[in-house]
């Protein structure tokens, strides 16, 4: 599954177009490497997303083509969530 679709279906990012903007701005890493929207994900991959001053790191648990809102959290496991991110640290 493509990275941009995973971010949308898992509801980590609301829209696929917004997921593309995040990846184009180098705000999404997969396994500690800058990733493009078309990056193919596999179960076990680690995704790091930078939302302004917040960094979220998740591990891919399942690749589902669609899911209900209440079941979207089953697609990933939250590893860490950090606030007050400072550029250069």
Key structural traits:
globular; Structural Genomics Hypothetical 15.5 Kd Protein In mrcA-pckA Intergenic Region, Chain A; 2 helices; five-stranded antiparallel beta sheet; 5 strands; 89 residues; alpha+beta
Write the layout of secondary structure elements.
Elements: H1 3-9, H2 16-24, E1 28-30, E2 33-34, E3 46-51, E4 54-60, E5 76-82
Antiparallel strand pairs: 1-2, 1-3, 3-4, 4-5
What CATH architecture would you give? Roll
The largest pleated sheet is described as: 5 strands, antiparallel
Mean pLDDT: 87
Count of runs of 4 or more consecutive helical residues: 2
Beta content: 25-35%
For this structure, what is the CATH class? Alpha Beta
Structural class, by secondary structure, is alpha+beta
Uncertain spans, ≥5 residues at pLDDT below 50? none
Number of domains: 1
Cα gyration radius (Å): 12 Å
Tally the beta strands: 5
The strand line-up of the biggest sheet is 2-1-3-4-5
Envelope shape? globular
Q: What's a concise summary of this model?
A:
This protein is an alpha+beta fold. 18% of the residues lie in helices and 28% in strands.
